[in-house]
Amino acid sequence: MTVALMWEARAAEGRGPELLDWVREHPVAGPPLRREILRAPGDRVLVITWWDAPYDADLPELPEPAGELVARPVHRWRFESLGTPDA
Fold it and tell me: Where on the phi/psi map is residue 46: left (φ > 0), alpha (ψ -120 to 50), or beta?
């Protein structure tokens, strides 16, 4: 089974580039099958990692950044991959 972990944070005012650098400097242990970093307006940063593991496996995740770097607590979600649609 492939499990995807999503980690999303919103940077404190004016600190978007710093949060993006922080994410790039903090790889998760493992390594995962794949790791992708995305950004969105509002200084939001999203990290998705894919793992070959059971859904409820204890998997490494990014920690919370220092409190002054983010505008709110990190949001985290876990999904089971159902594959990609046939082309």
Answer: beta
Mapping DSSP to helix (H, G, I), strand (E, B) and coil, where does residue 25 land? helix
pLDDT 10s digit of each residue in the chain, 87 long? 999 999 999 999 999 999 999 999 998 888 999 999 999 999 999 999 999 999 999 999 999 998 899 999 999 999 999 987 875
The residue behind tokens 């404190």 is 12
Domains of the chain, earliest start first: 2-80 (3.30.70)
Rounded Cα–Cα distance for residues 65 and 22 (Å): 8
pTM value is 0.91
Q: Which uninterrupted H or E stretch holds 21?
A: helix 16-25
How is residue 61 annotated by DSSP? -
CB 78 within 8 A of CB 12: no
